[in-house]
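> forwarded from #structure-qc
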């Protein structure tokens, strides 16, 4: 039997550094990096204007990727998924991916203050101008109103990463 890859995914508020951590871990694990933002912008380049659009198109993307990710993992390739696991429902999707084949996994929970998240979002608006319409304090509060901290009852292998204000 082939050795399985590891599934790595994230939980953290908007602006907490999930994408930055994903890039770092993909290099560390020599893993495939899959970014939801990249997939959505490639498949639905003009359709995502408001948060409700994101929800709609994100839910269409996930069924397409599930089997693909499982195949990579079962081939011995680790996969870092830069997709949010910020609600129980989002995390349940990751659980579907790894539980069917008992694939090793790790959930990185980035525990970051709202103040630092907002500073990082402001910086991101400057460095990636195409995100300026979505990366606002208003959207930050809207998105994070859905945020649910992972719990022990969810039975994930969790690595908590705490970041202090800079």
């Amino acid at each position: 039997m082939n050795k399985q890859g590891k599934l790595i995914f994230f939980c953290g508020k908007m602006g907490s550094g999930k994408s930055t951590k994903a890039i770092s871990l993909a290099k560390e694990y020599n893993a495939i990096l899959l970014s939801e933002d990249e997939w959505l912008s490639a498949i639905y380049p003009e359709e995502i204007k408001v948060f409700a659009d994101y929800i709609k198109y994100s839910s269409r993307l996930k069924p397409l990727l599930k089997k693909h990710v499982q195949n990579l993992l079962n081939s011995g390739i680790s996969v870092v998924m830069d997709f949010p696991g910020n609600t129980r429902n989002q995390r349940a999707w990751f659980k579907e991916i790894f539980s069917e084949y008992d694939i090793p996994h790790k959930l990185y929970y980035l525990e970051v203050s709202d103040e630092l998240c907002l500073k990082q979002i402001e910086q991101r608006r400057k460095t990636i101008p195409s995100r300026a319409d979505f990366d606002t304090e208003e959207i930050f509060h809207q998105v994070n109103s859905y945020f649910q901290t992972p719990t022990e009852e969810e039975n994930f292998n969790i690595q908590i990463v705490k970041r202090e204000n800079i």
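QC bot note: The domain at 7-163 is CATH 3.40.50.300 (Rossmann fold). Helices lie at 18-29, 36-43, 51-74, 88-99, 114-127, 137-144.
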